[in-house]
Specification:
This protein is α/β, with parallel strands linked by helices and 306 residues long. The chain has nine helices and ten strands. A hairpin with a 1-residue loop joins strand 4 and strand 5.
């Protein structure tokens, strides 16, 4: 299912902006050169690269050239973080809709695209699901079995989202602090969240913690802009339900739309400003635009070596 959706992106590249901890292999700059580490896996030999790590014993058995890959031999380590709170299921009627996804479906699709690109580049990638802490943690690796495992988790997450129960809360700041302590080596951290947390300041502190540990951070701020930023509904009474707590509120959105919209836009602007000051790549996502119209421009920008 996911494979069909991401096929069009396989020819793109994805680069880190800052120096990463790994070997140089023509893609990402690295602070380390010329050291070895514990053997991890084999990969096919690419014409023109050094023959130093060719496994000649394996060549004698298979008549094919394979290179020994070590645990430290990766251009980049990337940890994908998906906010798995119930608010990410909004809009509820778009669950499982690939063309116009809800926030969680968008995050799953984008994560799958990035996994495919990172795997093709022989970069390491991991996945964390965040709710009231770290719900699931898969550390970064770079082999084919790991790729299949990650896709299996994302496929299940996508299937479960269609029938997922509500009132699935999250403590996003605590989950991010735990993540910052969990990643012992400099990594690229990509976070998908709607940032609907209160109070807001602990979330900003958690983002600062990630940058303090020298991780590069990309923040995909996923919202349905018309409904969640502007409260654009017909002028009639609605019953609004908090997807995380189940609390209900009946009101006419036209009566509060101006005040609500101003506060939400101020909140988004504050997040963007803090991200800029922390040197976080802030990516506002309007899921109403559809998946491909959002992710393709981002990948085209990132495919250029910065």
């Amino acid at each position: 299912m996911l494979q069909e959706q991401i096929a069009r992106y396989k020819s793109l590249d994805f680069f880190a902006r800052q120096t990463v901890e790994g070997f140089i292999a023509g893609r990402h700059s690295s602070p380390f050169h010329g050291f070895s580490a514990e053997f991890s896996d084999h990969r096919q030999y690419n014409t023109g690269e050094s023959t130093r790590n060719i496994d000649w014993r394996l060549y004698a058995r298979t008549d094919k050239l394979f290179v020994k890959q070590f645990q430290e031999e990766t251009n980049l380590r990337c940890q994908l973080l998906i906010d798995h709170s119930s608010s990410m299921l909004f809009p509820m009627e778009r669950q499982g809709d690939f063309d116009h996804p809800n926030k969680l479906t968008f995050s799953i699709l984008a994560a799958a695209v990035l996994v495919e690109l990172l795997h093709r580049q022989r970069d390491a990638f991991g996945l964390s699901l965040l709710s009231a802490g770290i719900e699931q943690y898969i550390p970064a690796r770079s082999n084919e079995a790991h790729r299949q495992h990650i896709f299996g988790v994302l496929d299940k997450l996508l299937d479960d989202s269609v029938t997922e129960s509500l009132s699935h809360t999250t403590d996003l700041p605590e989950a991010l602090h735990l993540t910052a302590e969990q990643l012992h080596r400099r990594s690229l951290v990509i976070l998908f969240t709607d940032a609907l947390v209160s109070p807001f300041e602990p979330f900003l502190d958690a983002l600062r913690h990630l940058r303090h540990n020298k991780h590069e951070v990309i923040l995909f701020h996923t919202l349905h802009h018309d409904r969640e930023l502007s409260l654009d509904y017909e002028a009639r009474p609605y019953r609004f339900i908090d997807l995380e707590t189940g609390k209900q509120l009946k009101l006419n959105p036209a009566e509060i739309a101006d005040t609500y919209s101003r506060q939400m836009h101020e909140r988004q602007a504050a997040l963007q400003q803090h991200a800029l000051s922390y040197r976080i790549d802030y990516q506002p996502v309007d899921v109403a635009l559809g998946f491909h119209q959002v992710i393709l421009p981002f990948l085209l920008k990132r495919s250029k070596h910065m």
